[in-house]
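Worked problem 6 (solution included).
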Amino acid sequence: MRDALVGAAFQLFLERGYEETTVDDIVALAGVGRRSFFRYFPSKEDVVFPDHERCLGDMTAFLSEEDSTDDPVQRVCDAARLVLRMYAENPTFSVQRYRLTKKVPGLRAYELSVVWRYERALADYLRGRSTGPRADTLRADVVAAAVVAAHNNALRSWLRSSGEGDAEKAVDHALGYVQRTFGSSPGGPVDERPEDVVVVVSRRGAPMWRVVQEIESAFGQN
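Solution. The predicted structure is:
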């Protein structure tokens, strides 16, 4: 019945327009009563995003599981990929919803509230994994926002192309940039490589050319 209501709603949205379609129109086409509609969807807006609550639950469960990675940024990137898979399950529906949402300001606002909830889930996880100072709260918020922005940039590009191309590859590329930028251990960012420290011992009173020569020798230069 839930799928029937979603199908009926989008058929009417495409034929009449979102604003011109009422809940009564949707239940009439689906052949059910109003009570059945509100059993599944609190409002007409919710029927446009029928899968986000499930996806948010899946993301929260994924983040709460024990994981073997030492990099929490990788973990939140993997969590964001669950959203992509939800969209990729039904490309036709996802593209239709994207086009509808672009036309209806109320739906865009609703979508932003959903995105904010995903971002909060990622930030909460990062704060929980942090072992550093209070400043890591800011870092958690910044990284979560970056993950969501990178994911959505690639996802919307795929939706604008009517679902053509490899969405997973595009999202992997975008999230890879985030991982390279913010990838860390729980305590903070990991340096790409440790700095080398060279100590040169020279005789007091040695001429400068000799000191320079010894330094060059220590660095393996001729």
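Discussion: Confidence is low (pLDDT under 50) at residues 185-195.
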